[in-house]
Amino acid sequence: MRIAVLSLHTSPAAQPGQGDAGGMNVYVRATAAELARAGHTVEIFTADPLAPTTGTVELAPGVRLHQLDTSARDKTALADDVPALAAALAAHPAYAGCELIWAHYWISALAGLALTEHPTPAPTPGPRLVVSFHTIAAVKDRDTGAALEPAQRRHAEERIAAGADLLVANTEAEAADMVDLLGADPARVVTAMPGVDLATFTPGPLHTARRAVGEQDADLLLLYVGRMQHVKGTDTAVEALAALARFDPMLAARTRLVMLGAASGEGTDPAAVSARIDAAGLHGRVEILPPVPAAVLADWYRAVDLVLVPSRSESFGFAAAEAQACGAPVVASAVGGLTHVVEAGRTGLLIAEDDPLTWAEGIEALLCDPAARARMGAAAAQRAREFDWRTCAATVLAAVPAAPDALPGTAEARGGGPR
């Protein structure tokens, strides 16, 4: 089968942890590779204005990445350019003959809807539309307690939920949100747990990893991985270390926090985080470093005592899953997909609020208990074996509804009729 994968606002070739690149980029690239390994031809399309590639490049055997031209210079402008992008896709030679569209994020999904809603000139139904939201505006607003997402996005996601042939949820919690908040038909929602690259993210000796990342002299080491955003809880990570210094100064003096991340187009940026670090009196005990490739990131996970994932909203939590695969205990927010990734008390801790003192107490409990960290690390590596990309891709493909015998261009041919 020929499959068109739409990742318009961010290129799967981009380095996760900066700009708009994050777990979704990992997801798109990994699932595309699995689809190709299963014998399908995969054409990925992006319009990312900051993409590191141009034209057409091969990402993996059977997977090609195509850069679409656009005048948009950011994600907001890209959403307004959807009609032109859909037209460019329809005319692109690599799109011809595609039987399935897998759209990632609401901007790509809107373009997918535009492609499937037009009457099909051929005597066969048009491609089926599969959508992975990755994040949902209504969920982010609910979890952060603020209406931060534009109305354009909220309305678009409701329309996408009604028009797509299949919606892909990372967890049962996200599937429930699609039904409850977007009005999706439960029969058109499939839950497919994302995977982890278990060839790269593997357990290993702490001291070896510390030498690899230049931290051989570190005592107690904490790690945050991700973009510098309020929704990712960068402020909580810093304030938790400050709180630890207030009620356990001796432990805090032994502890450093490394943050691997960069600026994003929304929310907090590294300059704001640096100012918060200085205001908290943590200069020299918190270090912000740029994001790194997966092989180096795996060394960081293996090198630390705890990984902090203080997100205020999270559909899955790739940092938590990758950290566990490397045998690192995780302290994470009890939100969204993180409650499925982290097994509370077994592979790490789940914190039900973003209060820095509560976070500091959880961090202290594990830093003072090496035996508990060792048990959790071993259980975390075992848990990570359940995150399998091949199963994820196969689950999605198996759930795609077959094209009914209907006239091209009708609601039934596009998946709009009853199942």
Automatic annotation (TrEMBL):
The keyword Glycoprotein does not apply. Residues 22-191 form the Glycosyltransferase subfamily 4-like N-terminal domain. The keyword Ribosomal protein does not apply. Gene3D superfamilies: Glycogen Phosphorylase B. Residues 210-382 form the Glycosyl transferase family domain. Keywords: Glycosyltransferase, Transferase. InterPro entries: Glyco_trans_1 (IPR001296), Glyco_trans_4-like_N (IPR028098). This is D-inositol-3-phosphate glycosyltransferase.
